[in-house]
From TrEMBL:
GO molecular function, one term: ATP binding
Pfam families in the cross-refs: DEAD, Helicase_C, RecG_dom3_C, RecG_wedge
Organism in which the protein naturally occurs: Breznakibacter xylanolyticus
This protein's record includes keyword DNA-binding: yes
Alphabetized PROSITE patterns for the sequence: HELICASE_ATP_BIND_1, HELICASE_CTER
Role: Plays a critical role in recombination and DNA repair. Helps process Holliday junction intermediates to mature products by catalyzing branch migration. Has replication fork regression activity, unwinds stalled or blocked replication forks to make a HJ that can be resolved. Has a DNA unwinding activity characteristic of a DNA helicase with 3'-5' polarity.
Name of this chain's protein: ATP-dependent DNA helicase RecG
Length: 699
């Protein structure tokens, strides 16, 4: 395989400098190996030839064998096109071209027979195929396209440069002909035998040139299994290394602070899930090894209370703790609730954000260095160089996906030994994604809501029910509640979205003149935004019109109505996050999803899932299946720390579990991959590391 990676694609017959440059810029393809590992995204069965009389306008793809009349120009201006008629003796099929008219006219010979391939449609009652693929039949030449035909993703630039799917397939044929030997294995022989995998050379040939469906599925399984196996092997090996080599602070004591809080200050009895998670964290911090744990808890599940109790254990062991939140609003909220909960206990808590005045920062720095300050809550201001602790033992990061790796790593360096790390998220992560992206972390889940919380009732309305909605909002506010009205604000359509937001604000003011309406969006200055937020939090404003800036962490227990406008433009996880802004008090809360009546199948599924369940993990799994892993946080690309070439985390969950178990089995007997039969695994991991996979996305 190393030989293939050293051969530049420019020197492959049929490529040359121009196409090589196009492949590099569009697909990052530079070597023969890159081409071989560029896999088809679908296959179409080209073995069947239809009679024209069998065709209907709703068939997926078809091919017919027919003669074609000389194409004739039809229409003017933008609707100008070439039209030819194909006949096989059973009927007439219209062929239409909007581009390359002269080229098409020159290519067609009315006396020859062609295989015509494409997607049939109906125009003016006639079956047609737009831009069909044509293959001229010759008596002495075998057909090029037969059986399962692979299709490759290509860009518009590639198509303009004569690199469409068919051209890529032809290059695959050329590269396999040029490479005479067998492609070397990337897995040990004992491993291939144990897991009954197809050999790599056979798998790569069959993925591009499948002989039948059964062989294709075996080839796909081999390549998916290997891809996911190496990801898991690397993650678990890193975890082994850290477990054995990174020493952690020992927290053996559960003392005065924790016990006083538990016995005298606890606002409500802990759920069983909270108790279980605290035990898991205590076990980590008492082991002498550095803790790296991910805490998942649905919105309103009580993660902040768990975080506080863990911070109290750090204080009991004479260590300092810090909590980093992604926004000033959320950091301030954490500070206020922690200060309130620990009042009278002798715990010194401080807040550090971008707005903290210079004089206050100086006092805070002195208290941190002297050890007088027990807990520091803040935003990314915590990672600034001059913020130095006397003895930092615990770092808690809230909504971790909003911080970069470099930002998190700077907190690790605030002590000689790295502190214990707890990362928290209210975005439920599907099990498959957690295994892949956070596989080197131990995972705790709070899967119970605190007592007294009622499930949020979710309904889906079309815009024509606006009067019903307004009546309902008025009823709720008259009972003393408050309401959010959220509009999408997406970068690509920012001007239109902002207009909709401001018009929505004007509309709410006119529709509810007896109530106070405030507005919050990301373009406001921090002071303006905070003032509007405070107006709503204090209850002076009854309705808040906002963008998704309120998605994370804003806690207003009195707000019981969440209206999401243009809900079809949000992903499932983001809809669930927004819904979680209500339902934080004891009263019944409601979420109303407003959409236009014209909805695609995926959107209908999203609305149906939202109205059916409040379970964040079920929603996250459904989101992964519907949208894929690249966009799990709504309009924000969460991205994967590596590029999957063939596996799909939404569809290949079973293969991922098998691959993870296989990686575990190997490391159980050979934790550092030192046995001779596993040298091939070490070699392959080194190669993958050179491809700049960001394995350390979290830790």
């Amino acid at each position: 395989m190393s030989e293939l990676s050293a051969l530049h694609i420019m020197y492959l017959q049929g490529v040359g400098p121009k196409k090589a440059d196009l492949l590099k810029t569009e697909l990052k393809m530079v070597s023969f190996e890159d081409l071989i590992y560029y896999f088809p995204y679908k296959y179409i069965d080209r073995s069947r030839i239809y009679a024209i009389r069998e065709l209907t306008g709703n068939m997926p793809y078809i091919q017919v064998k027919a003669k074609i009349s000389t194409p004739q120009p039809v229409g003017d201006g933008r609707s100008k096109r070439l039209v030819a008629k194909a006949s096989d003796g059973t009927g007439i099929l219209e062929l239409v071209w909007f581009k390359s008219n002269k080229y098409i006219s020159d290519q067609i010979d009315p006396t020859a027979e062609y295989i015509i391939f494409g997607k049939p449609g109906v125009f003016n009652g006639t079956i047609n195929v737009v831009h069909p693929e044509l293959e001229r039949l010759k008596a002495d030449t075998p057909r090029i396209e037969i059986g399962l035909m692979p299709h490759y993703n290509t860009t518009e630039k590639m198509k303009s440069g004569f690199l469409n799917s068919k051209a890529i397939h032809k290059l695959q044929h050329t590269v396999f002909q040029a490479f005479k030997g067998r492609i070397p294995e990337t897995l040990p022989a004992h491993f291939i035998h144990k897991h009954r995998l197809m050999l790599l050379d056979d798998a790569l040939r069959n993925i591009h040139f499948p002989t039948d469906m059964v062989t294709l599925e075996k080839a796909q399984f081999r390549l998916k299994f290997e891809e996911l196996f190496y990801i898991q092997l690397n993650i678990l090996k890193l975890k082994n290394q850290r477990t054995f080599s990174v020493q952690g602070h020992l927290f053996p004591v559960v003392g005065h602070f924790f016990n006083t809080f538990y016995n005298e200050k606890l606002p409500f009895e802990l759920t069983n899930a909270q108790k279980r998670v605290i035990k898991e964290i205590r076990r980590d911090m008492g082991s002498g090894r550095q803790m790296n744990r991910l805490l998942q808890g649905d919105v309103g599940s009580g993660k902040t209370l768990v975080a506080l109790m863990v911070m109290l254990i750090a204080c009991d062991n004479l260590f300092q703790a810090c909590l980093m939140a992604p926004t000033e609003i959320l950091a301030t909220q954490h500070y206020q609730s922690i200060t309130q909960l620990t009042a009278g206990m002798g715990i010194n808590v401080a807040l550090l954000t971008g707005s903290t005045k210079k004089r206050d920062r100086e006092i805070l720095s002195q208290q941190l260095l002297s050890g007088e300050l027990h807990m520091l809550i803040g935003t990314h201001a915590l990672i600034e160089e001059h913020v130095q602790f006397q003895n930092l033992g615990l770092v808690i990061i809230d909504e971790q996906h909003r911080f970069g790796v470099a930002q998190r790593a700077r907190l690790w360096k605030k002590n000689i030994h790295p502190p214990h790390v707890l990362v928290m998220t209210a975005t439920p992560i599907p099990r498959t994604l957690a295994m892949t992206m956070y596989g080197d972390l131990d995972v705790s889940v709070i899967d119970e809501l605190p007592p007294g919380r009622k499930p949020i009732e979710t309904v889906h309305y079309f815009h024509n029910r606006r009067n019903n909605l307004n009546r309902f909002i008025r009823e709720q506010i008259s009972k003393g509640r408050q309401a959010y009205v959220v509009f999408p604000l997406i970068d690509e359509s920012e001007k239109v979205d902002f207009k909709n937001l401001t018009e929505g604000y004007d509309y709410m003011q006119k529709a509810f003149p007896e109530f106070t309406t405030c507005m919050v969006h990301g373009k406001m200055r921090p002071a303006e935004k905070d003032a509007a937020m405070q107006e709503f939090i204090s209850g002076r404003a009854h309705i808040m019109v906002a963008t998704t800036v309120i998605e994370v962490g804003v806690n207003v227990p009195n707000a019981s109505v969440m209206v999401i406008e243009s809900a079809e433009r949000f992903g499932l996880s983001q809809l669930h996050q927004l819904r979680g802004r209500v339902g934080r008090g004891a009263e019944q809360s409601y979420c109303i999803l407003m959409t236009s009546p014209k909805l695609g199948d995926d959107t209908r599924k999203r609305m149906e899932i939202m109205t059916r369940t409040n379970d964040g993990f079920e929603i996250a799994e459904a989101d992964l299946k519907l949208r894929g892993p690249g966009d799990l946080e709504g309009t924000q690309q969460s991205g994967l720390p590596f590029e999957l070439k063939i596996a799909n985390l939404g569809r290949d969950q079973l293969i991922l579990q098998q691959a993870r178990q296989a990686a575990r089995d190997i490391l159980d007997t050979d934790p550092m991959l030192e046995h001779p039969e596993n040298h091939i695994l070490t070699k392959q991991l080194t190669k993958l590391a050179r491809q700049k996979m960001n394995w350390s996305m979290i830790s």
